[in-house]
Design brief:
The protein is of the alpha/beta class and 261 residues long. The chain has 2 domains: 71 residues, no CATH class; 183 residues, Rossmann fold, CATH 3.40.50.150. The chain has 9 helices and 8 strands.
């Protein structure tokens, strides 16, 4: 959508007024705008504003479609689930159901800066929280983030004493860890790896350690453009290959907490 000349002048006039008000400069804004509108610079400004307008509208439409698809999914699949913006408030409130004893495993897949892992360590102080991350960023492009995103940290994040971190790609670290914990049960699996491929690796490698009553917290199951093709897709494939049923317990803007039945 293009912007006509009068609309352009109005936008520029208001912006210049704001700038000069801040700097306390006194100029004839109307005359300045008129001169800009008559100069060769006018075309460049119009093209820039037009491109910016179209970019913003594209992002808005993308978000609207993601919101619509997400709400349709919630309305169909999560009618009885709790809406709560903070996933950790839900985990805190349900911690005795999630892991009543310390002999089950709590796993955080996707540590990044460590905020989620530290939160789990506080909620489950008697457990060792097992945190996995490559700390090298995304291994491939994801909906709105390029390969390598989230990989700019230097070194491993500081953690409480009841956290153990495992650095490396999931397909390298998870098989070794699963073998070391053979026969043990995962009571809480927190999945924050965004990508279908990474989530698929998680279920292929750790799925046998889940039981009826295990909880899975997905950080990005819903709520963004393309969500159907990533964590959600891998979860549905896992369900189809097993005898598990499930129920959604809670959800927020993008996260979802499910319990296996």
């Amino acid at each position: 959508m293009s912007i006509d000349k009068e609309e352009l002048r109005k936008i520029v006039r208001e912006e210049l007024k704001a700038v000069f008000a801040e700097t306390r400069l006194k100029l004839d804004i109307g005359d300045m705008v008129a001169q800009i509108g008559q100069s060769p610079t006018s075309l460049a400004i119009r093209e820039y504003l037009d491109a910016e307008y179209r970019f913003v509208e594209t992002i808005r439409e993308r978000s609207r479609r993601a919101a619509r698809d997400t709400y349709d999914f919630i309305d169909k699949e999560m009618r009885h689930a709790l809406w709560q913006r903070d996933q950790f408030r839900v985990l805190e409130a349900r911690k005795d159901e999630i892991s009543p004893t310390a002999d089950t495993l709590v796993v955080d897949l996707g540590v990044f800066k460590g905020g989620s892992t530290r939160a789990l360590a506080k909620i489950f102080p008697k457990h060792t929280i097992h945190g996995f991350d490559s700390f090298e960023g995304l291994p491939e492009d994801w909906s709105h983030s390029m390969k390598g995103a989230f990989g700019w940290l230097k070194g491993l994040p500081e953690m409480p004493a009841n956290v153990r971190l495992y650095k490396g790609w999931f397909d390298d670290t998870l098989p070794v860890w699963a073998k070391e914990h053979e026969g043990e049960i995962i009571s809480l699996l927190r999945v924050d790896c965004d990508l279908y491929s990474s989530t698929k690796t998680i279920f292929e490698t750790l799925g046998h350690m889940l039981r009826k009553g295990s909880w899975i917290c997905f950080d990005e199951l819903i709520g963004y453009y393309g969500w159907q093709e990533h964590e959600h897709k891998a979860f549905m494939e896992f369900i189809e290959k097993t005898d598990f049923k499930y129920e959604y317990v809670a959800f927020g803007l993008t996260y979802t907490i499910a319990r296996l039945l």
